[in-house]
Amino acid sequence: MIHAEEVFVVFYKGTPLERIALHGVSFSVQQGEIISVVGNNGCGRSALLSFLAGHISSSFGKLWLDKMDITSQTLFDRSMIFSSVFYDLNLGSAGNLTVAENLALAGMHHQPHSIIKPALTKEANDMFFEQLKNLDFMNMELLLTEKVNLISKAHRHVLAMLMAVIKGAKVLLIDEHSTGLDQKTAAMLLEATEKIIKSSGMTTIMAVNDPKFSLDVADRTFVLSHGQIVSRLDKEAKKKMKPEDLVALFNLAPPPDAAEARR
Amino acid sequence: MHVIDSTLNLLSLSLAFTLIGLNVCISSKILNVTDLTCDTSVTLGGCSYGALVLSGMNPFVAFFISMCLGAGAGLITACLASGVRMEPVLASIVTLTALQTLIVKLYEWGNGYLKITPSALSLQTSLDNCITTVMIVTCLCVLFYKMLNSEYGLAMRVYGGGRIISESMGINNNRMFCVGLMVGNGLAAIAGALITQTSCSFSTSMGSGSIVFGLAAVIIGEKMLNPKTIRGEICGYFLGALMYKLLLELATLCGASFGSEYNNVTIAVVLTFLMALMREKKRDTLENV
User: Which listed site, A127, A216, B83, B143, has its alpha carbon 20 to 30 Å from B89?
Assistant: First the structure.
């Protein structure tokens, strides 16, 4: 479904600060697949996800959606395909609106915004309430009329994921959303994440700091090092692995010089 | 009779300035950009309205045309900002400078000081004028309220929340910016036309400083009512405009007794005093997030 071909992302190209964030990354993702991307800090996980979402553009390489070349599409064009849940909260939901308004906004993504129809109706409000109640995440249904800026980080991430579901995004991109939360909340957030992904059947590409979650939930795992995918683990390979093995795997990844030499 | 007339005129002018409050609300609160086009839109609206009515046009058609001219001014600013990629402030200053020529031409066409005959407006007394103004402003405020509550208004507020999130919500940022400025400046132009109608005169500098007026209306209104809903905010703008206008009148009175050079300091002192009376007891750090 998504197919990336030899993608290079270079920051500050042509200046002394030049830094290659992605070094020829190629992969394919099938419809409904859950992919986890693991690696050390600075290995290019965030660059990969930001590139897919359209926040940064590639220097070389192609990105395909089915048969369509979407390499040159901007964030606006790609918003039909991708939804991002990043550690930067403001990329997932609008902070100056309430929770209900954000959900309503996601619902009107595909049609032109009407100037007559009110944005929030009683029915829609009730529907959102039910939806949040079914999800059962830290009493989130009580926060419908709260400004999103004032709710907790975990709530905002869940909101962003629900918005992706309502929007009907084809691919969900998750980048480190459980980082910076306390252990209990992080565990609950991951649980909710799994619930939302599995129930909606959305194709997901995620970078999560929890190696156990990466192994258990994902169908396949990419290990990234120095901007390259150094190994791909399928279901079989992952079955034999413990979380510690996974961490060891990307800690042992070759240093930049070796990576350079291989090209 | 004189007192009643001036009270009614004061009311009409405050209503007109409420519309400028709406302009400031759109640009600085909803879209989160600094737009100075407001000053020129007010002048443009006032001058075009005056000139057109003097040339014998139906006042309502003239209203409509001045509104379109104001919206056009907003469009120019928006195009400069999104097309040439100027800073919105700079773009609005460029528009302001360019349109001054048009305003002077309109002024010459209208033959300077205007005495609009009440029969041309079919408004015999200041009461008639006040009623018309109330009707027009109420209609516009209701439309504004409806627009902000609609899906489009929601999208507009997302634009103010951040360009990246609005784009990833499928909102065309450039178009939203254009529409926002056009609506805002259209409202400002109508305010200018209402001012011309109330004072029966127009000049090339009638709108200068109106953005300060609009901001004052918004801030005073917010401090007074501390509104939670959009409806409350709009009422707040009217109250704020009225208060500020009263303040100016007071300053003029003081000026009459002490000399006009005391006007400005009176305004500053009274405004500070008002703000001090209405200041918040507790500091809410998350208020402006």
Answer: B143
Is the ipTM reported for this complex over the cut 0.95?
A: no
Q: Cβ contact (<8 Å) for B165 and A53?
A: no
Question: How many angstroms separate the Cα of A78 from the Cα of each of A54, B160, B255?
Answer: 7, 21, 61
Tell me how many domains chain A contains. Answer: 1
**Is B143 an interface residue toward A (CB < 8 Å)?**
no
Q: How many A/B residue pairs have CB atoms within 8 Å?
A: 93
- A105 and B154 within 8 Å at the Cβ level: the answer is yes
Question: Considering only CA atoms, which of A159, A239, A172, A221 is closest in space to residue A201?
Answer: A172
Tell me if chain B has a CB within 8 Å of the CB of A122. Answer: no
Q: What are phi and psi of B231, to 5 degrees?
A: -60, -45
| Domain boundaries, position A54 | 2-262
Q: Is B5 exposed, middle or buried (0-12, 13-18, 19+ CB in 10 A)?
A: middle
Give the pLDDT of residue B117.
58
Q: What is the pLDDT of residues B81-134, one digit of tens each?
A: 999 989 999 999 999 999 999 999 888 887 655 566 555 555 667 788 888 899
From chain B, pick out residues whose CB is under 8 angstroms from the CB of A81.
none
Which stretches in chain A have pLDDT values below 70?
Answer: 253-263
pLDDT tens for B209-248 read: 888 888 888 888 888 888 888 889 999 999 999 988 888 8
Look up the CATH number of the domain holding residue A188.
3.40.50.300
Say whether residue A50 is in contact with chain B using an 8 A CB cutoff. no
User: How far is residue B218's CA from residue B24's CA, in Å, rounded to a whole number?
Assistant: 8
d(CA B226, CA B278): 10
Q: Are strands A19-29 and A2-11 parallel, antiparallel or unpaired?
A: antiparallel
Structure-token pair, residue A60? 């070389």
Q: Do A92 and B165 touch (CB under 8 A)?
A: yes
Domain map of chain B by residue range?
2-204
- Closest Cα of chain B to A104: distance in Å? 9
Helices (H), chain B: 2-24, 37-54, 59-83, 88-109, 118-121, 126-149, 151-161, 163-168, 173-199, 210-225, 230-258, 263-278
Per-residue pLDDT tens over the stretch A150-161 = 999 999 999 999
Q: Which residues pair with A223 in a beta bridge?
A: A38, A231
Q: Where are the alpha helices (DSSP H) in A62-121?
A: 75-78, 99-107
C-alpha–C-alpha distance, residues B114 and B96, integer Å: 23
Instruction: Count Cα neighbours of B132 within 13 Å in the Cβ-side half-sphere.
Output: 20
The token duo for A69 is: 């070349």
| Exposed/middle/buried for residue A178 (C-beta within 10 Å: 0-12, 13-18, 19+) | buried
